[in-house]
Design brief:
single chain; alpha/beta; Hypothetical Protein Mth938, Chain: A; three-stranded antiparallel beta sheet; globular
């Protein structure tokens, strides 16, 4: 599967490689994890990233929602750091730009909350 660029994002909607999604998702270098949901809705925690953490990554972009309301547990940031994965967090629109600026790098992934 080819690397996937985000074509567009608006509140509650993202278009990736020409396909429209209305649920939170994770983009890995060679696949999408669709309808991604966290144990605690507006918190990104280690348990929410089990499949991501098994990937060989260098950069993880976190989209914290349209208004940046999602919180990132410090433990998740520590785990990414311990695995040599740089983690950058932004409101989702800015995260989309950061992801698109880096998606051609072999080891870039993104996790995106599409609403609030």
């Amino acid at each position: 599967m080819a690397r996937m660029k985000i074509d567009s994002y608006s509140f509650g909607r993202m278009v990736v490689a020409g396909m429209e999604y209305d649920k939170d998702l994770i983009i890995l270098p060679n696949k999408l994890l669709l309808n991604w949901w966290r144990k605690a809705g507006h918190i990104f925690a280690p348990d929410d990233f089990i499949e991501v953490l098994s990937e060989d990554l260098e950069l993880m972009i976190l989209g914290l929602g349209a208004y940046g309301l999602v919180k990132v547990e410090p433990e998740l940031e520590k785990i990414f750091h311990s695995k040599g994965i740089e983690c950058r967090s932004f409101a989702t629109a800015k995260a989309v730009k950061a992801f698109n600026d880096n998606y051609l790098l072999n080891k870039t992934a993104g996790a995106f909350h599409l609403t609030c």
